[in-house]
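Pasting as-is:
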Amino acid sequence: MSKHFYVYYSYEEFGRGYIGSRGCKCLPEDDSKYYGSFWDKTFKPTGKIILAEFDNRRDAYDAEVVLHKFYDVVNNLHFANQSRALTSGFTTEGLSTFKGRKHSEESKKKIGAASKGRKPSEETRKLKSKQMSGEGNHMYGGTHTPEARERIGAAQRGKIIEDWHKERIRQASKGKKHSEETKRKMREAAQSYRTAEYRKKISDKLTGRKLSDETRERQKIAAKKRCEMQKLDRMVKQSNQVNFLICLWESDF
């Protein structure tokens, strides 16, 4: 008998939830007694939603990986998952050891007292800025080696800027205006990219050029990520019930 593979969301009534993938010989809707292989024994699910069905275990597992990342199940208090699925297995990396716990009032007061008034003075900030400007900067007059550039690129590749970080950047830039000199330079730089001479120069450089195996691999990874995001969009649309239950959980507490 062939197996059926699916991704599910099991949940407590007015409580937490759990996202997992499953393969069974019966139809997914008939697999009502299975709620997941979770470690947290305090999690007592009473219901289950089938989020999506797949033809093979690999696709079901890939969908679980995408959903775990999307909902950040390791650190999200709405979920009982204590590890996150990866394409190579499961990981507890990034798991907060403080998940589900709260600081006591005494601890909050101590933390607040220790952090209070720590904002550096304007003089200190100017001094640090001066120390790191011009010749005081350790990279002054130098450039990164190709190896260093690759390490920096690898560390930044695939990173997603969180909403709180975007907001900090927006607030820091709020009210700032470019000088007329800066605007002129930006206009000149933009115009240089539009000239026929510049386009021909780029075209000549790329003509007959073959992509390296490394570049092809990067493009392959990027294409796979796009497919994952498209799959995520479809699954998220089908998992509106999950979001509804989370909202219900929040309103109850």
